[in-house]
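If you are new to this repository, start here. Below is one unmodified record pulled from the training split, so you can see the exact layout before writing a loader.
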Amino acid sequence: MTAIPHRLAPYASLPDRYGEQQVAASTVDAHGRVVTLLVPPDATCNHRVPPEQHRPCDALIVLMDGSDVHEVHLPDLHLRFPRIDSLGSGFVLAAARCRMPSGPPAATFEALEKEIPHNALIVDSDGTPLTTFHAGDDVQHLLTDRHDNIWTGYGDEALVCAQLPANLRRARSCATTPRPAPRTTMPMPGLVRWTRDGSPAWYATLDPISPGTWTDCYAVNVGSDRTWAYPYTGFPLVEIDATGIRWTRRTPIPFASAVLVGGDNVAFLAAGTGPRKIPGHYTVTLTQGRNGPLETVASAPLRLPDGTRPTTWARRTVCRDDQAWLQFPDHRTWYHIEL
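And here is the target side for that same chain:
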């Protein structure tokens, strides 16, 4: 049987001097740097409290590039269940949950813009806010690429008030009753790409060769020049470039939480299914396929650096090309695996 990398390696740990602060969000960016959002111990941003009990807090971004550590202060951060990544020399943040507008539709574009929650924030290298934008509800993944695109992947409760592409706006403008604003409420958007200033550039559910309903984007891999998505319910592997979806392939693995892609090789990280699955018992499955469905080549249990299996589900997972980074109980430590 073909050998498959399945043992995690230590990657980075947050310095001890930040031990008293709460990790609100963390990721590994497109350059391999660890980006961590820290908040005070009593901050409510990652707790399920009523919206009226949520209070803004003073946050700190810690950017780790090997042994180099850079700090950026963010006063009065109000995002709930935040996500974060670097963006150029600055950063982009988004609240995973937001309260969508309800009631009668807005009569004007300006009124609609005021109703839509701007739950994403772009700041520069010293934390100065540059712009905000509406990223939608139930944001599960926030990743940027080397070209400063922003990618958001969504769960099964997602809604986004989406600006329509130019061709659909032209078609609707010819209707007998034109709409007052070029936006629509889109359920289950799956995956969205935004420009570096927070403008919508592409929606998975509006791509003409989209693989049906994107109920939940289980895994997203944002690579150097391609992005791969793995959406529920069919769990195909979908490759996306700057123009849209390039191809869609069937996969032999359901419910994977990570996908690594290197040439014709694709590895899936998935837990066992059924009532007897054990927390942290993941299997790494290597598959191959050029033009047709992916087929299993080898599989092995995922192990920590000491050879044992994890005892909890991964807290966070980041996939980029043929690499993945994972956190387990300690949300200050990242592990790494490469295809």
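Two things worth knowing about this chain: Residues 170-181 have pLDDT under 50 and may be disordered. Helices lie at 109-115, 166-173.
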